[in-house]
Design goal:
This protein is α/β, with parallel strands linked by helices. It is about 35% helix and about 15% strand. It is elongated, with a radius of gyration of 21 Å.
Length: about 350
Amino acid sequence: MKTIRDIDVKNKIVLMRVDYNVPLKNGKVTDDLRIRASVPTIEMLLEKGAKRVVLLSHLGRPEGKRNKEFSLAPVAKVLEKLLKVGLVGFYDLPKQGEQIKIPASFKVALLQNLRFDPGEEDNSAEFIKNIIDAVGAEVYVQDGFAVVHRAHASIDAVKEYLPVYAGLLVEKEVKNLSKVIDKPEKPVLLIIGGAKVEDKQPLIEKFEKLADSIVVGGKIAADGYKASSKKIYVAEDFDENSEGAKLDIGPVSTAKIASMVTDAKTIIWNGLLGYAEDPAYATASMITAEMIGEHVSAETVICGGDTTGFVENLMKEHPNLSYSLVSTGGGAALEFLLGNKLPGIEAIQK
């Protein structure tokens, strides 16, 4: 897989796919993790002499229509504060045959929400070519790992018109996820939580061969998940609310998981172990996250939207915690771990 380290971008206009699908409240970004994750790639491209970096992203599900609720304008303001370049241009998607005139002083530009046009989700070659022509792009960089499992125009069809290279974020995600499925250091521990067993069962089945131990917690365990192998440990005790609902795994199960974390050399965690939105039922997830984050000699991968968000917030309070990868890709990371082909990865130059 070729990355931006391998190419000459001097005096070239680079079109770059990012994932700025961030939460907004009252028109302001409430979590800038994904924006910050894109900064190293943007800055390396500029350091390598790129004339300009033009960013593409989606936000939410506007269903092919312009909707101010899903505008990327608030993202542009945050990005301008994070970058050293000072000025970040923000432009509407071009109309057919239109040229976007970006002043030379704007080294970085962000285009409006790709999903304002149905061509993005339709994987329209015409749609993405129109953008390429409008900004004069010569190179394409894929750095939106969270969307590489989608066959959309900015992920798949773009390869018909420009050479595609991986950004630093995609490189990091692929490298760390590959490590835990290709030749992981043993013992390998998979921790599974969350609510939907149908989403997690394929991962459990995949890792029955790869892992030395598998833990099942969360609502899946509370609902009575039955282990199909001796290497699968299902949480056996639970913390309940006044109505008897099992909302977190109990101290016995948490202690057993802690012991397995200590012994493991490779740890993959997908899915919270309790109803962690309520701090009263976040105990097992917090203890597990802290123990994994302190286990610096192990290869540790955190994936799944709720799990990564939980860990990111914990790291703000406890900056000493360290993980090999806190994945930005929920569904994409899961698909990668399952060994499925991802259009965005397939499009990258080999």
